[in-house]
Amino acid sequence: MMKGLLITPPVLGRISIGRVVEKNGKRQPEKDDQFTITSQIQNKEGWVKHPLDDKLRADNGDAKLRQIPVRMIFNDPELNLRAEYSLFDRQTGRPICVGNGEVCHRMTQQGIEKQVCPTPHLCPMGQNGACKPYGRLYVNLDESDELGTFVFRTTGFNSIRTLAARLAYYQAASKDCLSCLPLQLVLRGKSTTQSYRTPIYYVDLTLPEGVSLQDAIQQAKELDQKAKESGFDQGKLDTVAKLGYQAVFFDLEEAEEEVIDASEDAHPLKEQKMDVMDLQHGLKSSVQSVS
């Protein structure tokens, strides 16, 4: 196998909560109040919808798509949701610096260097919105391809924070049967004084309506046992996926339009600054310990 190649789950399509429009010659994200499932192909009108988009809308009575049934591929939450602070070159779409709030790996003239990551709010290089949280959630939608995924990209603190919490809680509650739980992505909205009462949309992960946590865990245990009896090794799958992520520090295949699309659910500027301040207190002590 080639070295230096980041191995990520196979992507069949994209999940977004907005679109990219052209204004004054610039491509800018425009938020929406529903999900859209697209293929990985673009035409003059934008991303081509995936057939699953029409199917899910039909199942929902052609109403706005605000819930999507999903399944996690891995038991380890961090394999399903990759999230870090990322600074991208706006000309090439390639990452310049990627960090976790403690340490970062940065492209320099001397190559890739490991440095302290003080979070975007405290980093001279990452201030003024240059560096943002960047999350990618990989979920399975199509039972005909159990290892294929649809990726939801986001630069929103609310989505990343909520998804990370849900994944960790469901993994703990199910005793490491996260990949067998019946789950759904849900689009939620909220308003704050910082957003001038304008709705802020973010993505949550919940159980299907009418399914209790106890029932979901029982279903997951039964599915896990059945998979083990068939010879399926979930632990080995997680191990292989983790090794693929650790191959390199930067995902050089992230195209510029994907980074722009990821900000579709970004908050208004004042809301985003407030979230940065919220996270700063929790991360500052760990940054100091590294330095």
TrEMBL record:
Name this protein carries in UniProt: Hydrolase or metal-binding protein
Pfam families for this protein: Gp3-like
Domain of life where this protein originates: Bacteria
InterPro entries: Gp3-like
